[in-house]
Fold this sequence. Notes:
The chain is of the alpha+beta class. The chain has one domain (3-55). The strands form 2 sheets. A 3-stranded antiparallel sheet has the order 1-2-3, with helices on one face. The two termini are 23 Å apart. The relative contact order is 0.20. It contains 1 helix and 5 strands; from the N terminus they run βββββα. Mean pLDDT is 85; it is low at 57-61.
Amino acid sequence: MRFVAIQDPTGSWAVFDTANEEPAEFGGRVLIGLTPHEARWLTAAANDEAGWQKTGALGTHPGQ
């Protein structure tokens, strides 16, 4: 998984991008200060999107 949900020391949640080792962004918003539900939902959505871009719409890898 490229994106993971993490809890920060203050108790809020963030979505972390493991590829660039920074908080993820979506729609111009840095994904920090989230509720646990928001963090889980956005993590799943980001990983789904990253997987779709990597494999393509038909589940084939680019160049195949």
